[in-house]
Design goal:
The protein is of the alpha+beta class. It contains 22 helices and 24 strands. α9 packs across α10. The longest helix is centred in the middle third of the chain and has 24 residues. The structure holds adenosine-5'-diphosphate (ADP) and magnesium ion.
Length: about 650
């Protein structure tokens, strides 16, 4: 495996490593910039280690106490150097750590590559130290362990072998020099030019901004010398000025003590990270330790992103591992109905080598997701309770997403039902279901709702007449999804949700309490029996267009209305479904007639006049068409309707 040339040893890489390196060197990548993140996170890990050990071993740091990472870019020589004064490596550690695939993530990755033709995967994974060969034709490591006298020099072209030798150096830590490939120094393509200081600066901001140690870089600029008064000296040679800058922000806001963060600091961070200039409605800052360790910083926005309700809405939670950025917009953490929440999650348990595919099956991530969901729902409930005004402001933005959760899965009902708000006939304010039931008069046994395309349409619905008269609150279901919610939201606290346009409803309890009740008010059932023949005759005239004709107990001033049978589609559902599916189910129509309306005695008279069969047909048709018009349906035969009306008017005034 290895041969000695003086003190320099030439070694070959492990077979798996070789294969991986081969792919890296010989392929084109879309994400090769991640090599920098990998090298910096290794440097940060190495500093973590010495920092930790120095807490008990006070001599360990010696004079070199200021822990930091340094980056040098040399455009002329096409080199990029990343150095740290961390723990360093001994000779044996270099052989052990660099040159074998030790890490399980990397190993798993190498395994996957065989199955997949997609070279592109490399970029999405990030595979530690080896990723430096994506941009470098030659990599040199000089390192000295904090515990060793001598340093080590390791060099490889990533071609299957490396050399290793002892190397004299006083400097503790690791210095990695990348001799950049030509295609990684192409100044016509700054994003792929890794010998450009500003490219490197941007990459640090993107991936390594919150590394806990300062990342320094010298910036060079030419300046003509100036005299005492600040004027440039004519003819003087320009001088090179060096500015040493720290490129990263170091402590991420989410790792700071909650008590020390002002709302404005949160807002500044929120604006920059999520590009939303509207102040958020709430912030959730969580720090969990224990079996699963993580920090989460979540924001409930005050405005929905314009594409929130698009099918392919893609925003999600950003992932970090120990302050190192891993992934944007991870969608697998929060459930769909909370997709409006923006934020990030940082866990030391996430590997940098994690991929979207792996995340989908990650059990630990699911546990974290559940915790976050619970916390977000708690925060929303708290907002509703303590800052109603704010909650009502954001409700129109995100209400539909929350409703979607109830619609999609029954198990979400209990979690989300207390977050719902509806307008109702009771007053002009929005109400929760709980407030609704608390306002219910004694004896009311159902929660009533009316569904239509808007509030004005609902206000005109004749089916609401009895509820208005008896002062019974009715919820307005005006979002398209609202009535469909009742498939899962069939009850709230064991009280049934009942549509005012369904055949059955039960106000008996309320009516009994009402002292102004007319003696014959409850007698519609009896009337249905008394007028059975008449009702049957009308039904017969309508020839299958309605499933039944009944005396109405809900109409007070209108002559007729339709109601739907207790199950199946309602008119509102039928109309909504028609818009998206031409095979939409039809709602059953039951025609209700108001026995107290002045037209009723006329119907009765016509019915009793056995010779007027044709007139009964006309009247039945007109009543039916009126009910259609009231519901906003198209008339089946407008010409016939118009002719029958004219005929009646002519008769009446002749
Ligand atoms: P990982 O970081 O996932 O272990 P890498 O390929 O990035 O995998 O690094 C392999 C190993 O090499 C590290 O675990 C570490 O032991 C060692 N190493 C890499 N870079 C450094 C460094 N700058 N200082 C000390 N050790 C390092
Ligand atoms: Mg690493």
């Amino acid at each position: 495996m290895s041969q000695k040339t003086g003190s320099k040893k030439v070694c070959t890489f492990q077979a798996e490593t070789k294969e991986l390196l081969n792919l890296m060197i010989n392929s084109l990548y879309t994400h090769r910039e991640i090599f920098l993140r990998e090298l910096i996170s290794n440097a940060s890990d190495a500093i973590d280690k010495i920092h930790f050990q120095s807490l008990t071993d006070h001599e360990l740091l010696g004079d070199d106490v200021e822990l930091k990472i340094e980056i040098e870019v040399d455009k002329q020589n096409k080199t990029l150097i990343i150095s740290d004064n961390g723990i360093g490596m001994t000779y044996d550690e270099v052989i052990e750590n660099i040159g074998t695939i030790a890490k399980s993530g990397t190993k798993a990755f190498a395994g996957r590559l065989k199955e997949s033709d997609k070279i592109d995967l490399i970029g999405k994974f990030g595979v530690g130290f080896y990723s430096s060969f994506m941009v470098a034709k030659n990599v040199e490591i000089i390192t000295r362990s904090a515990k060793a006298e001598k340093g080590v020099k390791w060099v490889s072209e990533g071609d299957g072998s490396y050399t290793i030798e002892e190397f004299d150096t006083n400097t503790r830590g690791t210095k990695i020099t990348l001799f950049l490939r030509d295609d990684a120094t192409d100044s016509s393509n700054p994003e792929e030019d890794f010998s450009n200081q500003y490219t490197i600066q941007n990459l640090i901001k993107k991936y390594s901004n919150y590394i806990s140690y300062p990342i320094h870089m010298d910036f060079y600029r030419e300046e003509t010398p100036r005299d005492k008064d600040g004027k440039t000296i004519e003819g003087a040679e320009p001088e090179t000025i060096i500015d040493n800058k720290v490129l990263n922000s170091i402590t991420p806001i989410w790792k700071k003590d909650k008590k020390e963060i002002t709302n404005d600091e949160y807002f500044q961070f929120y604006k920059h990270h999520f590009h939303d200039w509207n102040e958020f409605a709430d912030v959730i800052h969580l720090n969990l330790e224990g079996k699963i360790e993580f920090t989460a910083l979540l924001f409930i926005p005050s405005k929905a992103s314009s594409d929130l309700y698009d099918r392919d809405f893609s925003k999600g939670i950003h992932l970090y591992s120990n302050n190192v950025f891993i992934m944007n917009d991870c969608k697998d953490i929060l459930p769909e109905h909370l997709r409006f929440v923006r934020g990030l999650l940082d866990s030391p348990d996430f590997s940098l080598n994690i991929s979207r595919e792996i995340l989908q099956h990650d059990a630990q991530l699911k546990v974290i997701g559940k915790t976050l969901e619970k916390k977000i729902i708690e925060a929303l409930k708290k907002l509703l309770k303590e800052n109603r005004e704010k909650y009502e402001e954001i409700w129109p933005e995100f209400g539909k997403a929350l409703k979607g959760g109830i619609y999609m899965e029954y198990k979400n009902k209990e979690k989300l039902e207390d977050l719902l708000l509806f307008y109702s006939s009771g007053n002009d304010k929005m109400t929760t279901l709980n407030e609704y039931i608390e306002r219910m008069p004694e004896g009311q046994k159902e929660i009533y709702y009316a569904a239509a395309k808007d509030i004005n349409t609902i206000k005109r619905m004749p089916q609401l007449e009895i509820f208005k008269e008896k002062n019974i609150d009715v919820l307005y279901f005006v979002d398209k999804i609202d009535e469909f919610l009742t498939q899962n939201l069939d009850k709230y606290k064991d009280i049934k949700l009942q549509s005012v346009t369904r055949e059955d409803f039960n106000l008996d309890g309320v009516l009994k309490k009402n002292e102004n009740i007319e003696p014959n008010e409850k007698a519609e059932d009896d009337k249905n029996i008394e007028y059975k023949d008449l009702l049957d005759a009308i039904k017969k005239q309508l020839d299958g267009k309605v499933s039944d004709v009944k005396m109405s107990k809900r109409l007070k001033s209108s002559p007729v209305c339709f109601v739907n049978s207790n199950s199946g589609a309602s008119f509102n559902m039928e109309q909504l479904l028609k818009g998206v599916n031409q095979f939409a189910p039809k709602a059953t129509k039951i025609l209700e007639i108001n026995p107290k309306h002045s037209i009723f005695p006329i119907i009765e008279k016509v019915y009793k006049n056995r010779n007027a069969n044709n007139e009964l047909k006309n009247i039945s048709e007109i009543l039916y068409n009126q009910a259609l018009l009231i519901e906003g349906f198209e008339l089946e035969n407008p010409v016939d309707f118009s002719n029958s009306l004219c005929e009646l008017i002519t008769k009446a005034y002749n």
